[in-house]
């Protein structure tokens, strides 16, 4: 088996490589950001991708987005995502198109070597490995239109609700205005807000956000 690893922590990246090597699993490439992950996947065509959710430059969802992009390019590519936190919305994004060859584990599970290696083999073989804590959060979440959004998209929508322009949002989040525009486009798509001459999608998105947060409160 050959894997590609994406993890910005040098120690954790080396540790995972060592664990895999001990059981005869080859690391074809080990990178520390989402862009290099995509390059490595295209070059090596691995049997499995192991990726951290949060990586440079914004440490939000770069690793996950790169993994999802790779699965679109290579349908069925096994992906095992690891995260420091329970982030149900990211798990939903990962398994949205099916659970075959996908995994989402908390980093603390990596400390249990036997369980981690079992998850690696299972996902590489086309199975699934979703952390119990993540499953519990996903089951406890009520159906809410905002559940479809990533953490960053929800953050962008919240700033839109405060009346900030795209430029102001970009400055607040320390990202490019183009990145903000991409997030807003994703928000419109996930909330089912199609372009219309009669309605302003930005206002409709903000109203959806306000209704949802009022219910949660």
Note the topology.
Blueprint: E1 2-6, H1 10-22, E2 26-31, H2 34-44, E3 48-52, H3 62-73, E4 79-83, H4 88-95, E5 102-106, H5 107-110, H6 113-124, E6 128-130, H7 132-140, H8 151-161, H9 166-173, H10 177-190, H11 201-216
Parallel strand pairs: 1-2, 1-3, 3-4, 4-5, 5-6
Helix pairs in contact: 2-3, 4-7, 8-10, 8-11, 9-10
Structure characterization notes:
The structure is a single chain. The longest helix has 16 residues, at 201-216. The protein has a 6-stranded parallel sheet, with helices on both faces. It has 217 residues and is of the alpha/beta class. It has helices at 10-22, 34-44, 62-73, 88-95, 107-110, 113-124, 132-140, 151-161, 166-173, 177-190, 201-216; strands at 2-6, 26-31, 48-52, 79-83, 102-106, 128-130. The N and C termini lie far apart (48 Å). It is built from 11 helices and 6 strands. It folds into 2 domains: 2-139, Response regulator (Rossmann fold), CATH 3.40.50; 145-216, Orthogonal Bundle (Arc Repressor Mutant, subunit A).
The gyration radius over C-alpha positions equals: 18 Å
Count up the helices.
11
**If classified by CATH, what would the architecture of the largest domain be?**
3-Layer(aba) Sandwich
Helical content band: 40-55%
Total domains: 2
Number of beta strands: 6
Q: Which CATH class of the largest domain? A: Alpha Beta
Give the name of the CATH superfamily of the largest domain.
Answer: Response regulator
Structural class: alpha/beta
Largest sheet: 6 strands, parallel
Mean pLDDT: 86
Estimate what percentage of residues fall within beta strands.
Answer: 5-15%
Q: Would you tell me which CATH topology of the largest domain applies?
A: Rossmann fold
Distance between the termini: 48 Å
Poorly predicted runs: none
What is the overall shape? Answer: elongated
Pfam families: GerE, Response_reg
Domain HTH luxR-type: 142-207
Protein name: DNA-binding response regulator, NarL/FixJ family, contains REC and HTH domains
Domain Response regulatory: 2-122
């Amino acid at each position: 088996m050959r894997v590609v690893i994406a993890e910005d922590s040098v120690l954790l990246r080396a540790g995972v490589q060592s664990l895999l090597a001990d059981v005869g699993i080859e690391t074809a490439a080990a990178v520390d950001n989402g862009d290099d992950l995509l390059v490595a996947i295209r070059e090596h065509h691995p049997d499995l991708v192991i990726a951290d959710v949060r990586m440079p430059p914004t440490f939000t969802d770069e690793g996950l987005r790169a993994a999802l992009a790779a699965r679109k390019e290579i349908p069925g590519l096994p992906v095992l995502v690891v995260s420091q936190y329970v982030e149900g919305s990211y798990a939903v994004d990962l398994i949205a198109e099916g659970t075959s060859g996908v995994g989402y584990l908390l980093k603390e599970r990596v400390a249990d070597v036997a369980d981690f290696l079992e998850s690696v083999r299972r996902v590489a073989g086309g199975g699934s490995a979703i952390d119990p804590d993540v499953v519990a959060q996903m089951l406890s979440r009520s159906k809410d239109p905002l559940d479809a959004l990533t953490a960053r998209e929800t953050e962008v929508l919240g700033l839109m609700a405060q009346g900030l322009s795209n430029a102001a949002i970009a400055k607040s989040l320390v990202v490019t205005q183009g990145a903000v525009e991409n997030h807003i486009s994703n928000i419109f798509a996930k909330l089912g807000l199609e372009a219309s001459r009669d309605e302003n999608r930005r206002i409709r998105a903000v109203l959806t956000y306000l209704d949802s947060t009022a219910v949660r409160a």
